[in-house]
Structure formats: structure tokens, C-alpha cells
């Protein structure tokens, strides 16, 4: 019970003590379910990777595994930046919760890939232009092989431009929500493109588990964000 003379406390998900509508509870429940799925998939991939590290040969500095680890760190770090921007600009609890999840999940995964390079004894700095590893021929079944679709030094797929980042920075409220969801859908699609590319170029069990988890979790979030964007059109 709220004491007389005190204002309701505003929490991360809304006003304390305020009854939620069934529709609002339903949207929040769907979002939480997607986030929990992403966390479970990510933890499973991390655990499998830890157990199988000793069985995998060490990648070389110009390998697809090393290139993926470096470039996906950059990609994920921008995802964290986008999540932080919307957290401070949105008044929509569902959008802010999604942004917070992206910040924590992609920040942890970026650190994980930093750790790979350290364990492999490789430099964090790339010895060649970004995206070079995506021009390597596929080395597995070629299901998603896209050699030739990218050129060394090309922008990473789905990476927001400086102008797009500035647009989100200047926005607020529903306008910021729309910009964020649009940029993050494209960002996730680009991450899936990169994850599928490394799956066609590596037999390393750590990298394969991680990339498979990225594809599954980000496809799920794309579906959710597409629905969220349509509801805010």
C-alpha cells in the first residue's frame, strides 16, 4: 500500500502498484519468453564450447574463425550502443526491456569472442581488411556459402551508418522506438548473415555452437521486433 503523500515509484517496467491491462501483460510475457529463449540458447552454446575447446585445433590469424571473432565483436558492440541509446530515449517498457536484453546479451558475447582470440594466441587487431574472411570459399556443406558476395573492407552487413546512429540519437519517444526497431532488425539480419557464413567455413565446435545460437536467437528476436514495429506504425 502506498503511503499518503508519496508518489508511486516509477520502476523499469512501469509504475509500482499500477494494475496492468491483460493486453499489456500479454505483450510483456511474449517479450520475456523470447529473451529467456535467447539466454538459454546462448548459455547452452557457451557450455558446449567450453567442454570442446581442447578437441579443436587452434585457428590461425587469417582464418574464418579469427575474422569472424574480430568482426562480430565490432558488430555486437554497435548492437550494445543501439541498446543503450534506446534505453535512454524510449518511454515504452517493452522496447526498453528489449534494448536492455540486447545490451547484456551482445556485451557478454562480444567478451566471449575477445576471449577466443586470447586463448588462440591471436591479436585482437586484424591483419587484413574487415570482411576478408567472408570471401574465403566455404569449407563445409555450403548451405549458406556466399563467397564473392562481400569484398574485403566492405561495411559489415546490417551495420548502422553514422547518419542512422545520429538519427536515433536525436529522436525520442515513439519516433525513437521506430528507428531503433528498424535499425535493429537490419542489424540482426546482418549478424545472421555473418553467423551463417562462418558455419560454412569452420569445423571448430566452439565457433559452430556459438554461431548456431546467434542464428536461432536473432531470428526469434527479428520476428518479435517486426511485430513490435508494425504495432507502432
From TrEMBL:
Gene3D superfamilies listed in its UniProt record: 1.20.1260.10
Residue stretches spanning the membrane: 29-49
Taxonomy, superkingdom: Bacteria
UniProt keyword terms in alphabetical order: Membrane, Transmembrane, Transmembrane helix
InterPro entries noted in UniProt: DUF305_CopM-like, Ferritin-like
PANTHER family with a match to the protein in the record: SLL0788 PROTEIN
Name of the protein in its database record: DUF305 domain-containing protein
Lineage of the species this protein comes from: Bacteria, Bacillati, Actinomycetota, Actinomycetes, Micrococcales
